[in-house]
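Researcher: I'd like a structural prediction for the single chain below. Treat it as a standalone chain; there are no partners to consider.
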Amino acid sequence: MDFKLLGLSEYESRTYTAVVKLGRSKASDIAREGNISYGKIYDVLASLEHKGLVVMIPEKTRVFVASNPDNLMKLINKKEEQISKTKKEIADLKQIYSESKEDAVLVLRGKRNFYKINSYVSKSKKYEYVIKYNFEYRPEFIRGVTRQLRNKQDYKVIGRFNKETAENILKWEKDLKEKKLPLKIKRIKNDGVAMSIIDDKVVQIILINANTCVLINDKSFAETMKALYLGFYNSSQ
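Model: Treating it as a single chain, here is the predicted structure.
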């Protein structure tokens, strides 16, 4: 039997089936029944034990018994919960996609929606100008900046410098320096705004205190914000 859809490997599927058929049995018998090398069988049995599908009986010679196959239903229920959650997230993304196509301005509330909007916005091809509030250090953010700098895109950052952001700024600078991609981060006074301007197309604004995300798809607005940003950037330290 193959239980890959439930997260079991081929070896785990064959081993669990063998233990069910054999009943109380030794590892060597299970390996033979499941056509699995003896060198691998204990690791597979340990994995199944961790998943609650096999029980080891500590006798002079260790023997194993299968737990009730009903426990497989627990794995099915877990998968169904994950699928249900994914379906909801897809529905939310479809709503964002639909609304953003219809309207030049999309407004959403909540930090959760910020990450959804951020995943929807097209990746920059020429430039991205950023205002940061907390310099959150997330792997996907680092990967994005690394891609931009390696592709010789114009990437500029201004943001809030204080005790709260100092540690994250050091992480950003250290990570990019190790990749030989130095980035000058300029200081500004910032009481609650994050922003990115992308390729004369999109302006993304996060109002921190209002917990609100604003996505503006308008070329003229993006160009105006770009000019204002560059003026502010060039006058900052």
